[in-house]
Amino acid sequence: MGDLLKGISSFRGAVFPDNSALYEKLAREGQSPQALMISCADSRVMPETITQSGPGELFVCRNAGNIVPPFQTMNGGVSSAIEYAVVALGVRDIIVCGHSDCGAMKGLCHPELLEPMPNVAAWLKHSHAAYSIVCEAYPKTIEDRDRIRAVAMENVLVQLDHLRTHPSVAAKLARNEVTLHGWFFDIETGNVLIYDGTASRFIEIEEGHPLPVAVTGREVPHVVPTLAAITAE
Ligand SMILES: [Zn+2]
């Protein structure tokens, strides 16, 4: 803990004074972050560092396995963070960011590791579809390390699907007011792979190229088709 205390002291004495005007403005005017990022709680995955974001720029929700439980009436921390970001803050981009060497994904692949952690085991059921996809649809011969990486990538897509079950997100997608992004951070290389929904794969970003997105909004028709119109087609 000594290092953390030194960090607080250094922030207060050296970092904050250089940015005090920004902090004062944020305190006075409130936050207006440009995106909501749902990432793993892993200490090696630092959303603000990866994106080089400053105070007030990124609304972050972190948990084991960067999971978004499907919408349900029972209250939950992740659901509340999503609703607040979308409805109150008007965030227009939501990123689900997975990563390499994820302990949660290792647990999914090796359930015996989860035996002493019943809460983690129950939480990871929200990722079980990712595990099933890799077990059933990927080659059976892939090595354990690659299997865990594949599960982590598929998990990003499963959580994006879950995001769409949240009424606040579904409504904004239908008004074309929100875009969903799937990212994957490689700890070893520092690369961030981005899911391209059109190509259905993770790709490396190239500077100057438009950012691929996973799910774009759509414009719903302003007039509900009548039964007669549907029959005529
Ligand atoms: Zn993780």
Automatic annotation (TrEMBL):
Enzyme Commission numbers on file: 4.2.1.1
Note accompanying the cofactor annotation: Binds 1 zinc ion per subunit.
Protein role: Reversible hydration of carbon dioxide.
Lineage summary: Bacteria, Pseudomonadati, Pseudomonadota, Alphaproteobacteria, Hyphomicrobiales
Top EC group: lyase
GO biological process: carbon utilization
Protein family: Belongs to the beta-class carbonic anhydrase family.
Name by which UniProt lists this protein: Carbonic anhydrase
Pfam families: Pro_CA
Cofactor section: Zn(2+)
UniProt keywords, alphabetically: Lyase, Metal-binding, Zinc
Family matches, as CDD domains: beta_CA_cladeB (cd00884)
Metal-binding keyword on record: yes
Organism: Rhizobium metallidurans
PANTHER family listed in its UniProt record: CARBONIC ANHYDRASE
Entry GO MF terms: carbonate dehydratase activity; zinc ion binding
Reactions performed catalytically: hydrogencarbonate + H(+) = CO2 + H2O
Residues noted as binding Zn(2+) in the record, renumbered to the chain: C40, D42, H99, C102
SMART domains associated with the record: Pro_CA
Highest taxon of source: Bacteria
